[in-house]
Amino acid sequence: LEKDVQGANGQYLLLAHHFLQYNAVLSGGVYLGKMVSEKLCVPHGAPGVKFYAFEGLVSGKEPQRVQRYLQDFDTLEISEEQRSEMLQVMKRIYADTEAMMNEVFELNPVQGISYKTSQDGQEKAEPCAPCPEQLDLTLEQLRTYTGQDG
Known about the structure:
mainly alpha
């Protein structure tokens, strides 16, 4: 980031970082948090899925927030040269993020199935057993699980 924000187009390259972090990581994280919570059968923000909990975000308002961000983004006057440089930075950020996620996976490899396979319905992933922290529920928390949601 420090290297990107130096120079004539630094403010636009900072915007490229913000665009990806705010829209891709934050919004994607909200979605992933919901999916992971459902798969592990734990409440949103519980141990094991707390990484995906973002305080201050109103649940269900993510699409409107992203659309408002994009509309505001479109009001900026950005030259083709600046857009091109921003695109190169965004591609590098994605590659760096993917490399980081691969490193995280190597620290704790867990077998599963690919997204494509899960969508094709060819194979079903076996749910993982919850960790001890996920099994420590208060009576109030336990009462929220009625079994009516499937």
